Amino acid sequence: MPIPARIGFHASHEQFPPSELLSLVQAAEEAGFDCAMSSDHFRPWGKAQGQSGYAWSWLGAAMAVTSLPMGVISAPGYRYHPAILAQSAATLAEMFPGRFWLALGSGQRLNEDITGLAWPDKAERNARLAECADVIRALLAGETVTHRGRVTVVEAKLYSRPAGDAPALLGAAVTEASAEAVGAWADGLLTVSAAPEQMRKVIDAFHRGGGAGKRVVVQVGLNWAPTEAEALMGAHEQWRTNVLGGEVNWQLRTPEEFDTATRFVRAEDMRESLWISSDLGWHVARIAELVELGVEEIQLHQVGRNQRAFIEAFGTTVLPALRQG
User: Fold this and answer.
1) Which pLDDT tens digit goes with each residue over 131-157?
2) Could you list the residue range(s) of the whole structural domain that residue 182 is in?
3) How many folded domains does the chain comprise?
4) Does residue 1 belong to any structural domain of this protein?
5) DSSP sequence for 186-203
């Protein structure tokens, strides 16, 4: 039975220049991917990645040269004032009707403390996120907003908005607690792949918090290469800075700090946080497991440098296998 989920291509600004990502997302569309999403970093996670283009400039270009629906994850209330995020989202939604969604997260110090604001604890970040989400939603609805709280907004109004529906506002969450919290205000959940039992707990928490019946999008970190050794080493070279887990991920300030914190991570350790295999059939089976959990959209983030080989291999083998059932 063909899978009902959409399969997307994740554009990683931390790893590739914006110009290269533009050609890659075009290649992904040609290969049969259904959609795409973009990261939104000010700094890369580590020295080996080495890039960090501005996501919102790139999104306009990428949506103009493809017909793919696209989304992005951003953190309001720090380097982005919520009114500016609302204006950015409204502009893309007006230009490309029905094709854009915005996920809002509580932020990561690596990107957000460049403004000099004190970096708050998780509870405060969640409260700021919910407050900013309310502001953004009201602005997208055409309201004139004045708000004084964790953020200040004075008589803000969006004059250019989409003629149809406002873009969906998803809540980004990794833990059960965060997923339950965003269920109260979000139009859907954006989370990351984990073991099926943990994924089910996160999705159930989102439903419990108010997200029942809403869309679920999962970003999958993976690495495929023609051999197991290449797949494992490529994952370690590019993505070992991303395996710390817990609150540490959101507290470190610079790529150098991430490199130091992960200097003893072994290549084999990467299997705990990424899908790593040279077997395309194995990847088909793992994607099918996510679909069984009720996931509607799966954004594949190939962490290795071999992006074009990945696009070709998945476009030729994985996507047709999933669609044929």
Assistant:
1) 999 999 999 999 999 999 999 999 999
2) 6-324
3) 1
4) no
5) -SEEEEE---HHHHHHHH
